[in-house]
Design goal:
Length: 131
């Protein structure tokens, strides 16, 4: 299978797959960020209050803003990391399952297209669910 013959198919499948996976990353991160922020709030508040307890110049409002900023920063980082890990792991597992077991007798181009787009579509679909 020569790349020069099938370049358009590779380009379209890879582009569609990239879009679907990016969609899944965004959805997974959005769903997780709020839950992670709620779980981390108490510890972050304790750390910020401990760090600022000697500083009398800091107002209650400024402490709350720092806590909120730090909580959002940590939640964003953790949600991004988990989203990348979860979606990539699921994508690789489904791609291998489809290409080596389900579509092993299919033509190479069909195998590539269906296994790649099928895996990306599945993780995009699963990322839209609520839990």
């Amino acid at each position: 299978m020569d790349l020069s013959v099938y370049w358009l198919a590779y380009l379209l499948v890879s582009g569609g797959c990239a879009w679907l996976i990016a969609f899944a990353y965004k959805n997974t991160k959005f769903g997780l960020k709020h839950r992670i922020a709620q779980k981390r709030e108490e510890g972050i508040s304790r750390d910020i209050n401990k760090a600022l307890q000697d500083d009398k110049k800091v107002t209650k409002k400024e402490k709350d803003e720092r806590i909120l900023w730090k909580k959002n920063e940590i939640a964003d980082y953790e949600a991004t990391t988990y989203s990348l890990f979860y979606n990539n792991l699921l994508f690789l597992f489904v791609t291998v399952l489809l290409s080596f077991f389900v579509l092993r007798t299919a033509a190479p181009l069909v195998n590539y297209g269906v296994s790649t787009l099928g895996a990306a579509g599945l993780i995009a679909l699963l990322s839209t669910g609520t839990k």
